[in-house]
Amino acid sequence: MGLIDDLKGKAQGLIHGNEQAIKDGLTKAGDFVDSKTGGKYAGHVDKIQDGASKLIDKNGTPGAAPATEQVPPVTPVNPAPPVNPVPPVDKAP
Hints:
By secondary structure, the chain is an all-alpha fold. It has one domain. 59% of the residues lie in helices and 0% in strands. It contains 4 helices and no strands.
């Protein structure tokens, strides 16, 4: 699950310091969905907004360690060999 952990760490890093802007975006998105559906799914939209807001509060807590310190870097199991951009020179006589 190294990739998932890496993505989670990056998301936490983006959330930190931008909590209010993200919440404002969630509110606008919810209002947009409500306007397009005539409020038919307002309860569902509100539930998703509340859950997302709690997740943002949990992952963007001020004073928490930066995401780069929370998640160790991913090391590939079989790293690709370096690419040689210059073809070898034929030394035939």
